[in-house]
Amino acid sequence: MYFGFAFITLWGYRKPYNNNGQAYRKKAIWLVFTISIVFGAITEIMQETLIPLRTGSVYDWIADTIGSLLGVAIYYFFHRSRNNLQNQSFCK
């Protein structure tokens, strides 16, 4: 779920991501990754404290973090390879 969350969030910002410089791209990646981690932690805390018969787990939070990291990484490599293909010319 967090893989999809991170990937789709970056996909939604693809126009500003493409049009702005490298600093903006790094900021966007770190922002999405941080939001994903914080959201994962909040859901685990809520499960532990607010929902009866549910327990929060650090291992679930680690799995959420790994999913977020993979989503961001896959988007980054997808975007990078896509731009490399667009920049190549067949008329050389």
Describe this structure in words.
The chain has a domain at 34-79. 82% of the residues lie in helices and 0% in strands. The chain has four helices and no strands. The longest helix is centred in the C-terminal third of the chain and has 30 residues, at 58-87. Residues 88-92 have low confidence and may be disordered.
Q: How many H/I helical runs? A: 4
Distance between the termini: 43 Å
**Strands, count:** 0
Low-confidence stretches: 88-92
Main sheet overview:
none
Helix percent reads: over 70%
Structural class: mainly alpha
Radius of gyration: 17 Å
Secondary-structure element order, as H and E?
HHHH
Topology:
Layout: H1 2-12, H2 14-19, H3 22-49, H4 58-87
Helix pairs in contact: 1-3, 1-4, 3-4
Entry keywords:
mainly alpha, elongated, 4 helices, 92 residues
Q: Brief description of this entry?
A:
The chain has helices at about 1-10, 15-20, 20-50, 60-85.
